[in-house]
Amino acid sequence: QEGGACMTSNFATVGAVYADGISLIFDGQETASQKHYKCNTAITFHPGDRVKIFPVSGTYVVEYPVGNPKQ
Question: Given a cut of 80, is residue 33 above it in pLDDT?
């Protein structure tokens, strides 16, 4: 388990964005992870974004934001 999250989780919320990665708020938790996770560098992430995460080698990679379509 990474950051107390179940490794089968597919979604999380961005807590904050740092130069070395993204902190995540996993479902069922109230605070952001202390660990910073690597992410898709083609996308600009923002705190509060709901994101798809992919488990790989005991950690997560943040793939992309999900939500309602842009208008």
Answer: yes
